[in-house]
Amino acid sequence: MLGPVILAASRSDRMRRLISAAPVTKQVVDRFIPGETVDDIVPIIEDLTAKGLELTMDVVGEDITTPEQAAAARDAYLELIERIKPLELGERVEMSVKLSMFGQALENGHELALANVRPVVEAAAAIGTTVTLDAEDHTTLDSMFAIHEELRKDFPQTGCVIQAYLFRTEADARRLAANGSRVRLVKGAYKEPASVAYQDKHEIDKAYVRILRTLMEGEGYPMIGSHDPRLIAIAQELAHQAGRKLDEYEFQMLYGIRGEEHLRLAAEGHRMRVYTAYGTDWYGYFMRRLAEKPANLRFFLRSMVSKG
User: Is there a catalytic annotation at residue 288?
Assistant: First the structure.
């Protein structure tokens, strides 16, 4: 049950300072976040796509407190899109965005986030790719889904993320599957109360399978966000049962986790997209990666013992 403790630490300024100051931290963070700037990340994009992988890019950063910071986050994505344009990779490299970065939590945040994300979606479409709206905590989801619906009027390929541990998600999945959306299904990585989310891993896994079946049998494009070998095998079986071809769904995994599996799935002809984050404000992203999987935490603690 360390996950909730780590998620609580992800919001602690004191823990942020302690972990950021640890000499070993950068070495471990680099496993999950391979760069801080566009200059760092472009060679990573070229390397992974040359290996037959696809990517979704995340410019990390969530502590947005002013409209100016939200505009800077927008501009960071626009810079990324401009830099990858000459690579002519099209939809092989898409963007993932958190609307909190675009000002969603500020005054008039829904309108501000929509105004900031729209130019990113437009720029992505201009180079032949798209954007997926990441899910955050449950209080933000109605706004996220409304923005998703609005963007799809002009850019129908705009995707969104749903989280299996939330009670509401089965209904969300039915709606999204019926209207042909691109949907990434993940288990969920925020600390949510028992009133809105399953707390037991087994219950979350069962919900994940139920929701995935709905997506596979629907009219949309399912994106399976999981590193769990059992869920990956189930996804393949559900896709087969639904009569889906290999290009009618995809797998998504995080950069730095199960890299050999990325290559194995791609070699088998699956679309395999690597969620690749970069930037200087890495703390919240990094802590959620530790919370999601005990092996990630063990890796970090071993590194601190051996290197600290």
Answer: no
